[in-house]
Amino acid sequence: MTERPDQSPITSPRSERVRKVAALTGRSARRKQGRFRVEGPQAVRSLLAHRPELALEVHLTERAADAHPELERLAREAGVPARLVDEQILRAMVRESGPADATADGGSGPAGSVGTGSPGALVSPQGVIAVGALPPEDPDAATAALEALPDDGPLTVVVLHEVRDPGNVGTLIRTADAAGADLVLLTRTSADPYSPKAVRASVGGLFHLPVLTGAESGSLLEALAARDITAAATSGYADSELFDVDLPDRIAWILGNEAHGLDEETLAAAPLTVRIPLAGHAESLNVHTAATVCLFETLRRRRAGA
Amino acid sequence: MTERPDQSPITSPRSERVRKVAALTGRSARRKQGRFRVEGPQAVRSLLAHRPELALEVHLTERAADAHPELERLAREAGVPARLVDEQILRAMVRESGPADATADGGSGPAGSVGTGSPGALVSPQGVIAVGALPPEDPDAATAALEALPDDGPLTVVVLHEVRDPGNVGTLIRTADAAGADLVLLTRTSADPYSPKAVRASVGGLFHLPVLTGAESGSLLEALAARDITAAATSGYADSELFDVDLPDRIAWILGNEAHGLDEETLAAAPLTVRIPLAGHAESLNVHTAATVCLFETLRRRRAGA
């Protein structure tokens, strides 16, 4: 899928190679090229340090190379070329082309988005871009990742099911990482975590823990049960409150769509449903707020129990 | 500041009255007109039910009036006109004009935004819009709101200091509401909670609890201390961890800028600083995630202690 990178210097912002990197804003181009784009020093550092096997090439300005000397060292250690380019070339590599991209990324609804910047907006790559090899979307890989988890001991899995906004997907991955989740699985109806918007919002989280796409929600619930991991969901109608209920040591939080929440079928199939207490007049929480409360309560219990 | 609403039917999307409602996207127009715009059935319902004294007029489609019969009833009870308009008139009332609005709203940075939709995007008002009287931005009002709080018993105050993105401001107000905060104060360098983007993101939260703008951070810390409310901030360098530390019954969580966090001076002046434990490889949390963890831990303790 991914060709050997061309080593010659890039001199024109209109060159074929620049256009191919810019095209990675769209999902179909990512699939066709088998590559994805990573922007900014923090995310590129995370890619090179945590998932060097995915890295294909790094483009950076002289200024960014001076400000972040570790980037060239990490690229060398990962065995990938780090090329100095002009700021205008870097900017041409992230030029997003507006509405078409939002569709390509799975649609960015106006309600409940926690995305980082609007499609079509000029996003600064802060002097550095990397291109990585796109991991295949494969339901078997999701199951295999579950099977690779330890047989006993505490575990936290996060499942994103029908989370449509790439910014939300990225932010949820960042929060899952911060709360010490062991694995993030996305069903095939969720937005692509390898869209530039999701990668930006994850602030490196995408490379800090295993994130697998293309899972099937039905077989996923079975696979979780087979690994003795309790699937848990939030619902405003649940009898048990999060802060009172016993949380299992091995838990998978299933998070649903921004607007509609989790579908009835998945909710009914989850062995544990909890209600997050709401104290004011708010009728609901957005998916990221709910996930944050559940994941940090899980972390708090784990630390209290350790 | 606010004139008596014209009672005649609106027939053209290009009429002066439609343009004046559309202009409320910009901060200067809101100040000049002394009015702000509320979109969607849920937010309009919250305005009419919780802050009827602010409501000036309601515009809705026949379809929305049928789907949400309580809106006309609430408008009647609030003593404000509810006028049936065509869908195209309603859409013209929310037409946002792009980059200029982002600036008017205090700038929508690409990093760390948890906003709801991009400026310039077509946002559907879901059949209903209200116009409200803009409360004045007044540092004395912020102090007066603190003085109006009970003299003893538990309290949670949320202070937004230099939170620049209107979507973040709205989402933080929504979460403060859900976690049972008693009061939200914004310093004058924060984004305007009455921008349509912030109002949308707050999902009615803006009308569920007192939200005051224009506070001065220095005198605010003194006013909090005078009311026996402990100002608390998060810092990655704090010695105490949130989950281990004793939280005072009367607490004000001070939340800072999306990119830079809280300024050194404010951080140093806060009597309590805590660290949110991070379990993975994440280096930080965004301001909304950090706020959610702190506010719901405060709520959890309060309920456990009650």
UniProtKB/TrEMBL annotation, chains A, B:
UniProt-listed GO biological process terms: methylation; RNA processing
Domain RNA 2-O ribose methyltransferase substrate binding: 37-138
InterPro entries: Alpha/beta_knot_MTases (IPR029028), Ribosomal_eL30-like_sf (IPR029064), rRNA_Methyltransferase (IPR051259), SpoU_MeTrfase (IPR001537), SpoU_subst-bd (IPR013123), tRNA_m1G_MTases_N (IPR029026)
Keyword Disulfide bond: no
One GO cellular component, as annotated: cytoplasm
Keyword presence, Transferase: yes
Chain ranges passing through the membrane: none
Protein keywords: Methyltransferase, Transferase
Biased amino acid composition, Gly residues: 106-118
SMART domains for the chain: SpoU_sub_bind
Ranges for region Disordered: 1-21, 98-119
SUPFAM superfamilies referenced in this protein's UniProt entry, alphabetically: alpha/beta knot, L30e-like
Molecular function GO terms recorded: RNA binding; RNA methyltransferase activity
Family per similarity comment: Belongs to the class IV-like SAM-binding methyltransferase superfamily. RNA methyltransferase TrmH family.
Protein name: RNA methyltransferase
Organism from which the protein derives: Brachybacterium paraconglomeratum
